[in-house]
Amino acid sequence: MIETERLILRPPSAADRTGLHAMWADPVVMADLGPVKSADESDAAIARHAGYGESHGLGFWAVEHRDEKLLIGFCGLKPGAEDTPIAGEVEIGWMLAPSWWGKGYAREAASASLDWAWANLEAPRVVAITAASNERSQALMVRLGMRRFGPEFDHPAFDERDSRRRSVVLAIDRPDAAR
Asked: CB 3.0 to 4.6 Å from 49: which of 30, 60, 140, 170, for a disulfide?
């Protein structure tokens, strides 16, 4: 469990399923992340992320608002997908319910995830992928200290007609890396 000033990042529980299902089924949330997911697909995503913890020692956490005691999102670390330019890297990602956007919660959760990565992993950097058109996520990545990493690419998870297919990678180096 990770605690910040306003958030608790913790393993997702069965009680989080409804909230996570709602986020993955929300076309506003998924506008830049991918197609909306059914309840079965979101259950599979939760299980997949839990599996990263077992196989790689990392994963996504439920993001809970400390004062409100409400699930507001999902954030954490996972292995970079094998069929992308970040295969073998540690990838960070986040997803928040829209009512919590614009209040600094994604940055707070992502910063805590990065701190956890530096304390618990030996990765030389952490990377993030987003659609080239997703200016909000790219702006957050820059605020986190990330920079462009490699050229744009066509993400294989998206159909060639999908505007989210063209993607960018940003990265942040381990703070204690030799310069």
From this structure: 60
Q: How many whole angstroms separate alpha carbon 117 and alpha carbon 112?
A: 9
The answer to the question of residue 178 being in a domain is: no
H/E segment holding residue 130: strand 125-131
Q: What range does the domain containing 63 cover?
A: 2-173
In a domain, 140, yes or no: yes
Question: Tens digits of per-residue pLDDT, 90-120?
Answer: 999 999 999 999 999 999 999 999 999 999 9
Which of 139, 135, 150, 146 shows the shortest CA–CA distance to 171? Answer: 146
The token pair at 25 is 């089924």
Interatomic CA distance for residues 104 and 102, integer angstroms: 6
Count CB atoms within 10 A of the CB of residue 1: 8
CATH number of the domain at 144, please: 3.40.630.30
Nearest to 46 by CA among 70, 65, 23, 66: 23
Residue owning tokens 């910040």: 4
Residue 9 lies in a domain: yes
Tokens found for residue 128: 């993030």
Give the pLDDT confidence of 120-161 residue by residue, as tens digits.
999 999 999 999 999 999 999 999 999 999 999 999 989 999
CA distances from 179 to 31, 34, 90, 124, 175 (A): 38, 36, 20, 12, 10
Going by C-alpha positions, the residue among 95, 13, 134, 113 that lies closest to residue 58 is 113
